[in-house]
Design a protein that fits this description.
The protein is an alpha+beta fold. It has one domain. It contains six helices and twelve strands. Strands 3-4-11-12 form a four-stranded mixed β-sheet. A hairpin with an 8-residue loop joins strand 6 and strand 7. Helix 1 runs antiparallel to helix 6 and helix 2 packs across helix 6. The radius of gyration is 18 Å and the shape is globular. The chain starts with a helix and ends in a 9-residue tail after the last strand. The structure holds iron/sulfur cluster (SF4). The site of iron/sulfur cluster (SF4) has 10 residues, from loops.
Amino acid sequence: MKPLEAELDRARDLDVDALADAIETIGFECTRCGACCKSESGCGADDADEEPHTATVFPDEVRTLQSAADTDDYDWRDVARPMPYGLTEGPDGPEGETFEWALQTDDCGDCVFYEEGDDDYSGACAVHEDRPLICQTYPFSVDLGGTSQPMGEAVDEEGMVRAHECEGLGRDIDRADAVDLAEALKARAVRELEEAISVRDAFEPVETDTGEVVVHDSEGAKRPDGTPVDD
Ligand code: SF4
């Protein structure tokens, strides 16, 4: 069996109760600090230091966010940008081929859906009910090949559940919330591997012109506005 398919089988076999045990043991409560939604470098960083928020969003999640309650008439580009890894800096900006999409960012490099609060602990997500799986499961991930960051320290004996650095770790979580999080974590692992397999199978190299960006996702090759290259 090919490695990604084998990892997908492992993801489908993940035991939600065991994942919930690990989450319950380390504990977690979101403090609404916004660290996982904002630029790491902070607003106004020099170009060289700029590290915009970069979180993967899948094509169907982009469409969900386009039609989410507070995003009437959002364009594809309002929600997603080409994943920057793999692009090169050309005379007119980024160019080349890349894989997958990242949540769009604002002028500060923060997720475009992040709403700053009145203090450090009242930030909010404008699309909370429709947020992507990666946001639903932060700061946790599972240690399976083909799945995405955040990785981090193991929080269970088997090393399957990982937790990225986050100030919400260590806080009490009740069993029902731990199970909900564990279910989302498993769903995300399965989804990421299904997506990775589809991207691999749909991939066909595209000749790009100067200044052109092509994004390969599970539905084929697209322009930065989400339309297929073939159109
Ligand atoms: S979609 Fe919401 S939860 Fe996800 S990074 Fe943006 S503001 Fe944060």
